[in-house]
Write a structure and sequence with these properties.
Elements (H helix, E strand, L loop, with lengths): L1 H11 L16 H9 L3 E2 L2 E4 L6 E4 L4 E7 L9 E5 L5 E7 L16 E6 L5 E7 L9 H10 L16
Antiparallel strand pairs: 1-2, 2-3, 3-4, 4-8, 5-6, 6-7, 7-8
Length: about 160
C-alpha cells in the first residue's frame, strides 16, 4: 500500500502534455534538429511534453513551438528582425488576434502572441500566452533563435526603406 501511495504522489506531480496539432511539414528532418536544439528551460519555464511530432512546450499555460507549419508567403503583416549576439538574425511575422493564419490553439485562453518565421523552410511557429509574459514576448524568440537558425533562410523581410 505504501508503494501505491508513493506512486500516486509522484504521478500527481507530473503535468499533462501540451495538446498541439502537428505542423503540416512536421516530418521534415530539419524539424527534428530544431526541436532537439531548443533549450531545456525557456524564460525560467521548464520544458513539458507535447502530443505531436516536431513540437515542444514550456510552462503552464504553455509557451509552444511547432516546426513544419506552412511558411508564410509575401505579406504586409508586421515583421520583426530578431538579431543574435553573433550578428545573425531571424525574421518573424507577428500574427494579430484576428489573422486567419493564427492557429486555433493560439486563440484559446486570455490571449497570446503568435509568431511564425519568415523566409525559412520549414517554418517555425511560437505561441506565447499572455500569462507567461513579464517583459517583452519577443524575449522568447531571442532564446529560440539558435535552434531556429537550423532552418535555412531563403527570403528576408523587406521594409519600406529597403525598396527603391
Amino acid at each position: 500500500m505504501t508503494a501505491a501511495v508513493a506512486t500516486g504522489i509522484v504521478l500527481a506531480g507530473c503535468s499533462s502534455p501540451a495538446d498541439l496539432p502537428p505542423g503540416e511539414l512536421a516530418a521534415d528532418p530539419t524539424c527534428a534538429r530544431i526541436i532537439m536544439a531548443t533549450p531545456d528551460s525557456l524564460g525560467g519555464l521548464e520544458r513539458r511534453s507535447t502530443t505531436a511530432q516536431a513540437t515542444t512546450a514550456w510552462g503552464d499555460p504553455a509557451v509552444t513551438v511547432r516546426c513544419g507549419v506552412t511558411p508564410p508567403g509575401p505579406t504586409t503583416d508586421r515583421c520583426l528582425n530578431v538579431e543574435n549576439a553573433d550578428g545573425t538574425f531571424v525574421d518573424w511575422i507577428a500574427l494579430e488576434g484576428d489573422d486567419p493564419d493564427l492557429p486555433e490553439h493560439a486563440r484559446q485562453g486570455q490571449g497570446s502572441w503568435s509568431f511564425v518565421t519568415y523566409g525559412r523552410e520549414p517554418a517555425v511557429e511560437v505561441v506565447v500566452p499572455v500569462e507567461q509574459v513579464s517583459g517583452q514576448p519577443t524575449a522568447f524568440l531571442v532564446d529560440l533563435a539558435e535552434a531556429v537558425e537550423l532552418s535555412t533562410a531563403e527570403r528576408f523581410c523587406v521594409g519600406a526603406t529597403d525598396i527603391s
